[in-house]
Predict the 3D structure of the following.
Amino acid sequence: MQSYHTFDSTQVACYPRVTALSQRRAADASEASLHTLGMFALALQVQDGAAPVSSGSRVLVDIITKATVINQAVLAILIVISVVSWAIILSKSLTYRKVQRQTVKFLDAFRKSSKFSEVQAVCATLPASPLVGVFQAGYAELNAQFRLGGSQSANPSGPAPRPMLKSLSAVDRALLRAATVEINKLEKRVPFLATVASVAPFIGLFGTVVGITIAFQRIGTTGSTNLAVVGPSISEALIATAAGLFAAIPAVLAYNHFSTRMKVFAAEMDDFSLEFLNIAERNFT
């Protein structure tokens, strides 16, 4: 019984310590909660104070409308060339898709036909394919040589002579010339994208230099480096740089893509020319 009372007294003695520790923890938690609420209230005050600030798009419009005439002219030039380059990108994308689709159909018809006259009849339905122009040039050269050979060796009493080529190299030159014409058609207006990719960053850099120069002039006039003095000019400079990059980056990406597509089309025309020459040499020499 004595040990039991001793144990009970020990337990009773521990209770006050536990209670004090719990109160201290509750006080710390309450202080932390008050600190968090204070920070939240301060954030709300800051947000309320910043509420009158316009949105990003309005700020951008305000900067452009209040910019100098030179920077506005720079931005107008960049917007115009960007719109033109995007029009070229969309137009060429649709054109190259059509070219690829009709080229596949033309090759299929060419390899399934047994006569060049049958292929000639299909050409009218596939005008977008560059192989059509190459084939028509080679076919015209073949017919010209056949007519020339037939008029010189005409024999009304005998059977019709087998058509013979007088010069296979002439057919090769006709195919090569037609391929060059088709490549020029495919790359029409594409060099403008390379021009935009090269020039647009420098036009934007010109606007940047003008904006920085105006900022330094304002510093010299007011004798103050306050952000309210130099901020608008620096904003104009950065917007000009961004506009130049916005015009140049899509143009250079599209130019590289279209250049690769044109190399593919040129390779297809070279392969087709060799195939055409092989058939002509095998049947008409």
